[in-house]
Amino acid sequence: SHARITIDRDYTIADVPRRLFGSFVEHMGRCVYTGIYEPGHPQADERGFRKDVLSLVKEMGPTVIRYPGGNFVSGYLWEDGVGPAADRPVRIDGAWHTIETNAFGLHEFVDWAKEADVEIMEAINLGTRGVEEARALVEYANHPGGTYWSDLRRKNGAADPFDIKLWCLGNELDGPWQIGHKTAAEYGRLAQETAKAMKLVDDSIELVAVGSSNRGMPTFGTWEHTVLTHAYDEVDYISMHAYYQEHDGDAESFLAEAVEMDAFIEGVVATIDAVKAAGKHTKQVDISFDEWNVWYQSGLDTEDQPHQVSKSWRTHPRLIEDTYSVTDAVVVGTFLNSLLRHGDRVRIANQAQLVNVIAPIRSEEGGAAWRQSTFWPFERMARLARGQILRLAVSSSQISTKRYGDVDAVDAAATWDEETGRLVVFVANRSLEESNDLTVDLRGLGNLRVTNAETLTIPEDGDRFTANLESAPDSVRMVPLPGAEIVDGAVRASLPPLSWSVIELE
Ligand code: AHR
Predict the structure, then answer these.
(1) Residue 291 annotated as catalytic
(2) Does any ligand 1 atom lie closer than 6 A to the CB of residue 353?
(3) Which of 30, 71, 295 best tests ligand 1's pocket when mutated (most atoms within 8 Å of CB)?
(4) Share of the chain above pLDDT 70, in %
(5) Residue 484 to residue 363: CA distance in whole angstroms
(6) Judging by DSSP bridges, how do beta strands 436-443 and 499-505 pair with one another?
(7) 70 lines ligand 1 (CB under 6 A)
(8) Is residue 251 located within the same domain as residue 186?
(9) Of 108, 206, 224, 291, which is the active-site residue?
(10) What is the span of the domain harbouring residue 50?
């Protein structure tokens, strides 16, 4: 099959929002405990932070990390996680049927985030709590001192404010599974009043209202409309969450899920703008896609599934430790492409989660840490997408899918950095069988040459299910894409079947 992409350096979408390359650390399963934090591990520093995991996080390059949940946050008392470790209460976490020791809390996360060089995106509990606890937390975190909550922070060892700019007003409160589930009107009012009170403590913060937990929610669309009708003036973003998986061996449809992600984003943009127009607002609310990934939620009956774990009460049980294949990594690459294509409105995005729990990084208790296949597209795009997002004209051979009809065989996004003179094209070939002869016409981009071309595809001796296991952690990775070159002012490349490639030009 074949495809032609036309790029014109003057046709841009937006600056690359660096917060698009976010991740998520929840008190869930082994993301915190035995993930980023494991006192006593041979690689742990004096604070219990695993240096092996930290170095993989730095390599992957997330810019912002959402914390501490997730469903967990809707029953969490943040005060439990601050103060002398010995005095912290042990609690039941109802969301994941887990015992929470509170050994790790806000101060530990702030210290860890500094080490990892990431911005913090703090979620508050609007399931069981409200305005008072939220404004207390902003005062605790961001007020310099001389008041009750800020002095408590200082007493707990942090003289300087944490200066957390980005806050989530709860989590998935449209979902019946959520502790403190609400109707859109109940949540809209609560979000509005909580946002107002938080900004009265610190008016420099940015706030994310809860959107739909996924596009299939019965309230999708009306939820966003009602919530924003109440809270449009007080909030800066509305959230989106989406998880995708392959169903019944239908790889073609799975590989086309970015089509669904595109439509989901465009639907939320339309709803935001409808509320903006009706309310005669001038300010622009944007999207925080603060949970997205591949997650095998159905069809698996392994021991790390929530319904299995809930038979007992344990600390840090294995929970949803999905192992990702080449196919999953290519799909993740197309999701990153979709997010980048919508970077004018999706200004924040968080792959869920960072370590062990549906994560690009895995670690074993007392043992090794390694990169899953899905690590690679994230790492490459987080590092290379710089400058302006380009608007692409794509014409491609089609693939027929059960769920989405005919879709383009190639899925692409690109960035142009005026300062460095670098053009980067991110392009997936969704075909399972055929390579794709790609031509990229370059308009207004002078005499660029290909400086590097790499691809993530089926490894030699492997198949589309090949994954990175602890025993073979480098099976799936980026490898050179031979033959990418400029011919008559256009880039020519042959994309392998089932691949996600990066072509860098200068
Ligand atoms: O990321 C796993 C879970 O998925 C989160 O806790 C929740 O917000 C979502 O349903």
Answers:
(1) yes
(2) yes
(3) 71
(4) 100
(5) 36
(6) unpaired
(7) yes
(8) yes
(9) 291
(10) 20-384
Summarised one tens digit per residue, pLDDT across range 425-465 is 999 999 999 999 999 999 989 789 999 999 999 999 999 99
Same domain, 277 and 393: no
Q: Are residues 319 and 410 in the same domain?
A: no
ipTM for the predicted complex: 0.99
Rounded to the nearest whole angstrom, what is the distance from the C-alpha of residue 228 to the centroid of ligand 1? 22
The CATH number for 230's domain is 3.20.20.80
- pLDDT at 306 exceeding the cut of 90: no
Tell me which of 350, 384, 418 is where a domain ends: 384
The 10s digit of each residue's pLDDT in 274-286 is 999 999 999 999 9
Q: Is the CB of 71 under 6 A from ligand 1?
A: yes
**172 ligand 1 Cβ < 6 A:** yes
DSSP for 38-102, please give it. -TTSTTB-TTSBBHHHHHHHHHH--SEEEES-SGGGGG--GGGGSS-GGGPPPEEETTTTEEE--
Q: Judge whether residue 300 has pLDDT over 80.
A: no
SS (H, E, C) 354-392: CECCCCCEEECCCCCEEECCCHHHHHHHHHHCCCEEECC
Q: Give the end of a domain, one of 384, 412, 428.
A: 384
